Amino acid sequence: MNKWNLVWLLAKREFVERGRSKAFLITMAILAAAILAIGPVTSALSGGESEATTVGLVGDSLPGVDEELETQGALFGVEIEVTRYASMDEAESALEVGDVEAVLVDNKELVFQEKASPGLTTIIIRSVDIVLTEWSLSDLGLSDAEIAAIEEPAPVSVSTIEESNVQDDAKQGAAFVGAILLYVSIIMFGQFVAMGTVEEKQNRVVEIVLSRVQPWQVLMGKVSGIGLLGLVQLAILLSAAFVSAQLAGFTDIDIAAIGLPIIAGVFFWFVLGYAFYAFLYAAVGSTVSRQEDLQGAIILPIALILPGYLLAIAAAENPDGVVVRIGSMMPMWAPFVMPVRIASGSAAPWEIGIAVIGCVLGSIALVRIGSRVYTGALLRTGTKVKIRDAWRAASE
Amino acid sequence: MVHTGAVLSMTGIHKQFGDVVALRGASLSVDRGRILGFLGPNGAGKTTMMRMIFGLVHPDAGEVSWNGAPVDADIRLRFGYMPEERGLYPKMKIAGQLIHFARLSGLSKADATDAVHHWLGVLGLGDRADAKLDELSHGNQQRAQLAAALAPNPELLVLDEPFAGLDPIGVESLSDTLRELAESGVAIVFSSHQLDLVEDVCQDVAIIADGRIVLSGGLDEIKEQSTRRRLTVDVDGAPWIPDLAGVEIVQAQGRAHCIVPGDAPVAEILAAAEAAGSVSRFAFEPPHLTDLYRVAVGP
Hints:
Chain A is mainly alpha-helical. In chain A, 70% of the residues lie in helices and 5% in strands. Chain A has 2 domains: 3-44 and 166-393, no CATH class; 53-151, Periplasmic binding protein-like II (D-Maltodextrin-Binding Protein, domain 2, 3-Layer(aba) Sandwich).
């Protein structure tokens, strides 16, 4: 039988057995549900599709104030709806549940629930002011046309030098979510590799397996089988994120245009990052013989991954920072940081090139180091094997 | 020891782990169609030798060959191995994982499935094929382990302590299975501390002590060639010990026996026994394996 056919057999077993395990299924169900919920929940919390701002009126009010509020709102770019309340009690309860933003009482008092909004305050005060002025002017005998001329809004136009780009913000946000997903996935599936390695040592299956195949085949089979499962999980979670974004109903964002490159990027960087870390996880996993000892052993990969996560957060804020730029080109951190920088458009092609080449070379180095430690430590049971001893044992 | 039928040969094996010398030029050969009992005290190097056949440990010096050719990964696919540390996947179904292992040994899916169900049937696990390993009793787990070694239909079967933990019925059925396999041409080597059992099942033995093979060959030949004999005499219904230079007393089968030089004066001893009383038993025979073992391994 071909050497790689054996690797495929081993990979298939890892994929099927791990994919069937409760630990995997439950974790994935929770993650998928959480991601599906994020879109609709945030959209609900932020008030959804830019709804109108409601202003309540209680008690005496000037005729025409409703229309003026709407007119002034439009000038300030806010859609305002007016609701009348029969009593202050009613108005207050409406404020409490958020049905109304502010309540104008007897044209004299403006009530907010918790914090006064300066913009809304300006609009309301100005509307009341205009209506009152109109009345006074009308009392003075001015015609409607004359009043309109006086009340003509100041000819000041508002503009920004840079056009606000919601697409870019959404892209960076999505890239950051992708980076978090990568971080979670690499840690999760790296752990599966380490756990699987220890399980086989603890159950003594390893001797049965190694009497038939070479250690490198076991290692490749395990890493690729679990990696394939990782890709499947990523596909499911990214689909959930896609659906979640659709459910959130961002009307002004092209979800497919932003989502698809990010999804492709997450897969690409997952393969690179997972290849790098999986062999490290296998190596440290092979040095212990019991699951209880595993937590201590995987401190090494976790300590390497964590700065990558922190750098990804930093990159979302400032993709051009020196530390972020350097970190994005280091093989152990590139998979987390570089996608965020690429999304922000700050990564130069040569920087991406260094990151990718570094990841590939780093993975190759770790395959070799990891395989050797794995081989040397696999048949040693009992106490924790020192990485150095395992390295030496492999040459015996 | 040279047998014409030797298929597996291990010659001049040296192995050192750190400062500990495990094997000092040990040699072992296993014949086609014969069963070799591999004996020795704990830590003498049995498991290391067996692991070497499967490339799990590499010798510092010496050779492992199969029909004269160095053993490599392809040749190893013809070997079946049951390690001392029993191990299968606890949460996988028996048949499923045995098929997986058989396929790792190079069998096609169909052949692996057939072989696994055949051996599970032979070993009395036919109705437990779809049970998970951790649902089986200890004895049945042991049988499943043996089925894993047998499923690839190996030409060489290496079993590390296969009888450990089996009940008498289990011992008998495993013995029968091994004899049948040997008759069909399989070369078998197994390690054991149960010398009576080895005497019962094996044609050949090899005894290892302190990293060296101290005694090896066909069991009958070794016994015949021994310069000692076992003498068992009952006088008036009780064990009787002759007054003779070089007599060694051993306890076996719940009674005392004498180990005497092969040229001991049998007629004189019998006369002395008859003078002492009524002789109901007088046996002068080749030493038993336990006697040979004791001498070979030393105090």
